[in-house]
Amino acid sequence: MDRIPQNFCGRVRAPNLGIGIGLRPVHFREIFATWPSIDWFEIISENFMCGGMPLRNLERILGRYPVVMHGVSLAIGSAAPLDWDYLNKLKSLAQKTKTPWLSDHLCWGRLPGARFHDLLPLPRTVEVVDYVAERAKIVQDFLEIPFALENLSCNASFTIDEMPEWEFYAEVVEKADISMMLDVNNIYVSSRNLGFDPKDYVSNLPLERVVQIHIAGHSDYGRYILDTHDYPVRDEVWEIYREVYPRIKGGASTLLEWDDRFIPFEETWKEALKAKAYQQQLIHA
To answer: What are phi and psi for residue 143, nearest 5 degrees?
Structure first.
C-alpha cells in the first residue's frame, strides 16, 4: 500500500490535557455512577476495536471526556510486514475517538505467522534505526494523526548494540519525524537493570517531541525490577518526572498506568493527582 503524503511531524503543538488515568473495566461502575472530574482517559486501542459492549462503554466515556489511544500490538520493529488489517481498524477507531495523537511501543513482537504478545526490545543499531523509522513514517502518514513511540522498560541488552538506549530512541523519532510518548517509570526500570544514570537518558532526548508522559509503579526484586503497573509510583520515578516535566514547553499530558492488583477508582485518581502537586511545586520553585 502506498503512503498517503501528509505534512505531519513529531514537533507538534499537542494539547496538554492535564492528568489522566488508564480506562479499565474494573472501574466502569464507579465512573458511570459518579462521572468524576478527571481530565482525560487513555485506552488500550485493541480492547475497543471489535465493537460490542466495550465500544458501547467507550461511547459513554467519549460523551464526557477526552480519550487518547495507546496500542500494544503494532510491534513496529518486527520483521513481519505491517498488518494493514490492524492499521485500518486502528484508524477507524481513531476517527471515532478523535484522539489527538496515537501511541505504541518501540519494540518488536511478531514474526511472519507468529505473534508473541509481548513488548520485546530491539537491537540498538543504525540498521534497526533506519528500518523502524521508515515503518513509523508509513504508520503516521496512513493514520493521518500524530504518531508517538514509547520507550520500553528493558532488562537486557544485545551484544551487537551500537548505542545507548536514549540515543536509539532519539534517533528513531528524529529520523521518522514522529512524537515521543515518554514513560518515566520505564526510564527508571531500565536504568536499574542496565546500569545507567536516568539523568543521562533525559538530558539526551529531544524533549520537544514529547506529547505525553506515563507514570507507573514497578516491582523491585533486588537484582532487577519489572514494570508491573501494580504499585504506587515510587519516589525515584517522581524525581525523573520532576526532571522531565519543566523541560517540555507547555508541559505534557500525564497518565497514570495501573494494570494489576487494582485499587478503587478514587484511590487510583488520588495517586494520579500527585503529578499535579509536583507540577505546582515546579511552578513555585
So the answer is: -70, -25
Name 4's Cβ contacts closer than 8 Å, sequence gap at least 6: 141, 142, 144
Beta bridge pairs of residue 103: 70, 148
Domains of the chain: 19-284 (3.20.20.150)
Site of grid cell 492535564: 18
Q: Do 76 and 132 contact (CB within 8 A), yes or no?
A: yes
- Summarised one tens digit per residue, pLDDT across range 21-57 is 999 999 999 999 999 999 999 999 999 998 899 999 9
Calpha distance 221→231 (Å, rounded)? 13
d(CA 196, CA 50): 41
Q: Which amino acid is at 182?
A: L
Tally of CB atoms within 10 A around 105: 24
Distance from C-alpha of 118 to C-alpha of 115, rounded to nearest angstrom: 8
Look at the pTM and tell me if it is higher than 0.90: yes
- In angstroms, the first-to-last Cα distance of the chain is 51
The whole-angstrom separation of Cα 207 and Cα 276 is 20
- Between CA 185 and CA 211, with CA 70 as vertex, the angle to 5 degrees is 65
Give the C-alpha separation, 58 to 23, whole Å: 9
